[in-house]
Amino acid sequence: MATGTLGQAALTAATDTTVYTVPSSTTATFSFSVTNTGSSVSVIKVAIAATGTPTAEEFIEYDVPLASGDVLERTGLVASADKNLVFNSTHNNVIVNVYGYEA
Questions:
Q1: Which are the contacts of 55, defined by CB distance < 8 A and separation ≥ 6?
Q2: Which residues make beta-bridge pairs with 73?
Q3: Three-state secondary structure along the chain?
Q4: Quick one: pLDDT at residue 1?
Q5: How many CA atoms lie less than 13 Å away from 30 in the CB half-sphere?
């Protein structure tokens, strides 16, 4: 079972990106940070979803403006087996890091 860094990605604009998937028969406890390294405000969406294409009820953050140099962090999240942590940004130059452990 993994501990520490569970996933990392540089997002592509307007594209749903699965950064981490909880393995089968596992529960994950995790935190994530989203960092805008670009020069423009990016609008961020985050979901814990059954697939790589989230439905409306799966979003935990929706249309959150993230200014240049800002960071969005969420801690203490828990997801069950086979769930996907999916991110979307309106611009490139947005970096995602997911940290935690699986049990």
A1: 49
A2: 33
A3: CCEEEEEEEECCCCCCEEEEECCCCCCEEEEEEEEECCCCCEEEEEEEECCCCCCHHHEEEEEEEECCCCEEEEEEEEECCCCEEEEEECCCCEEEEEEEEEC
A4: 81
A5: 30
Domains of the chain by residue range: 3-102
> Per-residue pLDDT tens for 24-55?
999 999 999 999 999 999 999 999 999 999 99
Query: Residue 87 CB: number of other CB atoms within 10 A?
Result: 25
Cβ atoms of residues 75 and 31 within 8 Å: yes
Residue 8 has pLDDT above 90, yes or no: yes
Q: Which CATH superfamily is domain 3-102 in?
A: Galactose-binding domain-like (2.60.120.260)
Separation between Cα atoms, residue 71 and residue 32, nearest integer Å? 10
CA torsion through residues 63, 27, 8, 15, sign: negative
